[in-house]
Amino acid sequence: MPSDLTLWLLHGLDTAQGNLSFMAWNSFLALVPLALSFWLFRRGGSHARPIFWWVGLVVFVAFLPNAPYVLTDIIHLVKDIRSGQSVWAVALILVPQYFVFIGLGIFAYTLAIVNLGRYLSRLGKIRWVLPTELTLHGLSAIGIYLGRFLRFNSWDLVTRPGTVIGKTLGLLLVKKSLIVMVGTFLIIAVVHWLLKQITLAMIFYWRTRHLRAAQRHLGGGI
What is the pLDDT tens value at each position of the chain, 222 positions in all? Predict the structure, then answer.
């Protein structure tokens, strides 16, 4: 007979498997803007951009909220815990699963915006980086609210633009929804800033690895 611990863990594995469908879909949506950022912002230059580049930029902005949206999926973890999962299943299976899932989405968001910021810097528009980041945080906060509470999707901007714009303008006049969006904005901004420092440090470390190796070699030869 399997032990109670084994049964608890099996129950947790069943729940984790059931989570894979929405996690895979939401992770895909979170990776779309990241993939676009590598294409859109791969190089600088002052020459005119073709029309499909601008279309790609619009798609990038429209899909960007899907990356930090994964933060709100923590409600599913709360539901899983309340469903009677054991402490062992939660600690060993569900929390690590959600940690990886949410971490992937947030990192995709941060890296996509870092790519945009470095692109603007190469264009000599470094002063635009912070205002652009804050604007995208604000748009993402609005997008998260529309997705979580009104169940809009990114493609609704194309299929139902009037409805999305109308609902958005209406929400900005409602105190409760405005408070939620401001709170979401602050969370996104803080998390992004922290991860941005880590990401830039990793990029700098990777790009200077040869220089450090050369310095160590010279130091060892003296």
Answer: 456 777 778 888 899 999 999 999 999 999 999 999 999 998 765 567 889 999 999 999 999 999 999 999 999 999 999 888 888 889 999 999 999 999 999 999 999 999 999 999 999 999 999 999 999 999 999 999 999 988 888 888 878 888 888 888 888 888 899 999 999 999 999 999 999 999 889 888 888 877 777 777 666 544
DSSP string, 121-146: HHTT-GGGHHHHHHHHHHHHHHHHHH
Q: How many structural domains comprise the chain?
A: 1
- Cβ pair 76, 19 in contact under 8 A: yes
CA dist 66 and 115 (Å) reads 17
Q: Which residue in the block uniquely carries the two structure tokens 């859109």? A: 40
Which of 208, 199, 197, 198 lies closest to 111 in space, CA to CA?
Answer: 199
Q: Model-level pTM greater than 0.85?
A: yes
Residue 66 CB neighbours (<10 A): 26
CA distances from 190 to 20, 48, 122, 163, 209 (A): 28, 34, 25, 31, 29
Contact 144, 182 (CB under 8 A): no
Token look-up 């990192």 returns 107
Domain coverage including residue 27: 4-221
Provide the 8-state DSSP code for 123: T
CA 62, 66, 72, 75 torsion: positive or negative? Answer: positive
Map tokens 């995208």 to a residue.
Answer: 136
